[in-house]
Design a protein that fits this description.
Chain lengths: ~70, ~325
Amino acid sequence: MAQIIDACGRSCPEPVLMTKKALESHEARYEVLVDNNTARQNVTRFAKSAGYTVGVTEEADLFRLVLTKS
Amino acid sequence: MERLPRFEDPNLLVGFDTSDDACVYRMQNGMALLQTVDFFPPMVDDPYAFGQIAAANAMSDIYAMGASPTLAMNLLCVPNCLELDTVEQILAGGYSKVREAGAIVAGGHTIEDEEPKFGLCVTGFALPEQVLTNSGAQPGDLLVLTKPIGSGVLATALKAGLLGQKETGDLVAVMAELNKAARDAVVEIGAHACTDVTGFGLLGHSYEMAAGSGTTIEIGAAQVPLMDGAKDFANMGIVPGGAYTNLEYLQDKIFFDPAVELPMQDLLLDPQTSGGLLVSLEGEKALRLVQALSGVTPCAKIVGRVLPFNGKSVRVTAQ
C-alpha cells in the first residue's frame, strides 16, 4: 500500500513541499494527488530529481501521480 | 475581448495591438509622449525592497522603448490592517528608484484591498524617431540580454522558504536594478529593436519581437545568463505556474533542440519580474553594448541572433 499525499486544492509550491516532506520516509512507492497542471508538472520534476519514475493517470477532477523508486 | 471597441487616433504611434511595452503618442510640439502602468502584489517580505522592485519594474517599460521616465504616479492597494510604517516603507522604496531614475512622483491613488499591491503609472518623453519598439529586429542582428534569468523560479523558492539570506539579497538586487544604464548604452550605440523581459519569459518576449519583425529568433540556451541557484530549483519543480502557461501559449511557435534540458526550458519560459532589456542590433554594436555594460550590468550577454523567418518564430539551440 503506497503512501498517499493528497495535495488537491493546494497551489505551488505547496504540493512539491508536501511531496518533499513525505519522501523523507524513503519508501519505494508513493501516490500524489493534485488537481492542477502546474502541480502535476512540478511534482513530476521533483520526483524525477529525487530518483523516482513517475506515472500519471488522469481521473475525473485530479491527476494521480504514482512515484516508484527507480 | 475582441468585442471591445478599438480606439483610433492618427497621433497614437504605438498602441497595444503590437504587444509593445508602452504606448507612444505624438504631441502637438512634435515630441512623443510614452506612457505605461504596472503594479503587482509583493514577492518579497521586505516592504522597502518590494517598493523598489515594483518601481523599477514599472519604469522599465519606458526604458525598453528607448526613453527615460519623467513623471510617475503611485498605484497603491493596502489592507486596512497594514501598519502605516509598512506602507511608508513601500512608498519610500519606490521613491528611491524614481529618484535614481531622475524622475518625480507627482501623485497617485490608494484604495483598500485584501492583499497589498504597488506600482506606478509612468510617463516619459522622446523624439518619435528615437523610440525603440519590439518590432524592428533584422536578420543578421545579434541579441543582447542585460540581466540574468530566473527571478520567477527564485521568487517561488523564496515563497517555499527554500532561499537563503544571501540568495534572497541577490534576487532583490537584480529585480530592483533599473534598466537605466542599459537603456542609455542602447540609445548611444543604436539598436533595431528593444523590449524588456517580464511575464512572458525570455522566449515569450523573443516571440513578440520575432513576430513583430517577421523574423526567426534563435536563442542559444547555454549563452543565457542565469541567477545562482535558479537551475537547481527548476530541476526540483519549484517552477511558477506562469512558466507552464507561457509554454502552452508558445508551444507551436517555438522549436526546442531536444538537447536543451528540461530545467533550462523551464527557465527560458520563467516569468520575470523587472527583467533585463532584450536588444536586437548589428553584430559589431552588440559587442560594443556588452563591452559598455561590462562594468555596470556584468550579466549583459549575447544570447542569440536574428534569422530570416524559417517556419518557427523562435528556435532554441543547446549551445
